[in-house]
Amino acid sequence: MDRQENLNKRKTFMLFALIVNISILFIFKYLSFVTKNIGFLLRNDKILINITLPIGISFFTFQMISYVLDVYYRKATVQKDIINTTLYISMFPQLIAGPIVRYETVAEEINNRIEKPEEFTDGMARFIIGLGKKMLIANYAGFIADKIFLLNGNLSVASAWLGAISYTLQIYFDFSAYSDMAIGLGMMFGFHFHENFNYPYVANSITDFWRRWHISLSTWFRDYVYIPLGGNRVSKKRLVFNLFIVWLLTGIWHGANWTFIAWGLFYFLLLITERFVGFEKHIGFFSHIYTLFFVIIGWVLFRSESISLARQYLSAMFWFGSIGLTDEIFFLYFKFGKVILLIGILLSTPIASLLKKKFLKNANIYKCVSSVGLIFVFILSLLICIKSTYNPFIYFNF
Predict the structure, then answer these.
(1) Which of 22, 224, 324, 376 has the greatest CB tally within 10 Å of its CB?
(2) Are 178 and 396 in contact (CB under 8 A)?
(3) Rounded to whole angstroms, how far apart are CA atoms 118 and 136?
(4) Is there a contact between 189 and 113 (Cβ–Cβ < 8 Å)?
(5) Cis bond upstream, residue 99 (ω within 30)
(6) How far is CA 71 from the centre of its chain?
(7) CB neighbours (10 Å) of residue 163?
(8) Could you report the per-residue pLDDT of 277-328, keeping only the tens digit for each?
(9) Is 396's pLDDT higher than 60?
């Protein structure tokens, strides 16, 4: 078999694998959405297919696609053991909601994994931190957000902003909590996953935000979509097209709803504007405010069930269609959650890391304080978990 024939054969297998994985993702996640919109256009509500969405399908199909492409481009060695291949694809710590793990990250550990007592301990600590984020912050912020978003057409300006900020905190602590727990479990079993968040709410631009938020997804689209399309080494028109495709797909990846598509294109417009204006050259305090402002606006669009509901909610935030500046709802939920929201805001900054570095100067004090803190967080989280009703992670839906 000559070189060209071998390359054609490899390309055929690669395309076949891509078609299979994308088809699976389309059928389970998007077929219902497509048929619903076709039915709407044809004014025929009988054209509808309802398919139950498997948990985490977007994550494990993306892992399979990355494996296929890495093997094709010889960035990774093919795994010939079906058990090890299945282990990579269905690794339970991060299977459901990420981070998206590249095969090359864990290839050596799949074959020659070493479990160390100190890493097991560190993994437990990381898991407890994630559990605390979910049970002590995300769930309470989510309770406020859910209650306020249900009142979409009857909100004051203050209530609308409180709901938006609560959801901004909820989605960060909810998703980063799962990533922490996945990374922690991985360490306990001898696997080392890459970090998925780096304090995204302290970003100084939208570009910087996406370097810090859901890092495994943004780097996936960069490596497997943006760069193959030509990246930024192209003309301005082609660059706009490349970014449009990436952010359209990013929106679609998050869900079969027009709000997710609009959310993706919203970031496309922001990123294109930053790139051509050269925004990152003018970094200051204002840049942080600007970034957080548009991120919050984006989360409202992301959270809303429809474009019209998003428009109503955003109108209330800017005094168009609101019932006033404040109302009883605002004071009720602000009083209920002000402490949790304040803690959430503080912990979404690197303040904890700065305190850790300070305490590390005295190892004994650090070990004592961190151990007591982790035990307290674990017990409190466990008690709340037992008491509370079922509250899954947000990204289980994706």
Answers:
(1) 224
(2) no
(3) 27
(4) yes
(5) yes
(6) 26
(7) 28
(8) 876 666 677 889 999 999 999 999 999 999 999 999 999 999 887 788 888 8
(9) no
Say how many C-beta atoms besides its own lie within 10 A of residue 98's C-beta: 26
Please give the tally of structural domains in the chain: 2
pLDDT tens per residue, range 229-271: 988 888 889 999 999 999 999 999 988 899 999 999 999 999 9
Same domain, yes or no, for 47 and 72?
Answer: yes
- Identify the domain boundary among 94, 111, 128: 111
d(CA 29, CA 252): 10
Kindly state whether residues 92 and 129 are assigned to the same domain. Answer: no
Please check whether residue 146 lies inside any domain of the structure: yes
User: Quick one: three-class SS letters along the chain?
Assistant: CCHHHHHHHHHHHHHHHHHHHHHHHHHHHHHHHHHHHHHHHHCCCCCCCCCCCCCCHHHHHHHHHHHHHHHHCCCCCCCCCHHHHHHHHCCHHHHCCCCCCCHHHHHHHHHCCCCCHHHHHHHHHHHHHHHHHHHHHHHHHHHHHHHHHCCCCCCCHHHHHHHHHHHHHHHHHHHHHHHHHHHHHHHHCCCCCCCCCCCHHHCCCHHHHHHHCCHHHHHHHHHHHHCCCCCCCCCHHHHHHHHHHHHHHHHHHHCCCHHHHHHHHHHHHHHHHHHHHCHHHCCCHHHHHHHHHHHHHHHHHHHCCCHHHHHHHHHHHCCCCCCCCCCHHHHHHHHHHHHHHHHHHHHCCCHHHHHHHHHCCCHHHHHHHHHHHHHHHHHHHHHHHHHCCCCCCHHHHC
Given a contact cutoff of 8 angstroms between Cβ atoms, the answer to whether 95 and 56 are in contact is yes
Residues 90-107 have pLDDT tens digits of 887 777 766 888 888 888
**Cα separation of 311 and 319, whole Å?**
12
* Domain encompassing residue 39: 3-111
Distance CA 249, CA 261 (A): 8
User: Is residue 179 located within the same domain as residue 298?
Assistant: yes
71, part of any domain: yes
Using left for φ > 0, alpha for ψ between -120 and 50, and beta otherwise, residue 130 falls in alpha
Give me the residue label for tokens 């709901």: 163
Backbone region of residue 278 per phi and psi (left: phi > 0; alpha: psi in -120 to 50; beta: other values): left
Output the pLDDT for position 397.
61
Q: How far apart are CA 261 and CA 278, in angstroms?
A: 26
What is the average per-residue pLDDT within 69-96? 83
Catalytic residues: 254
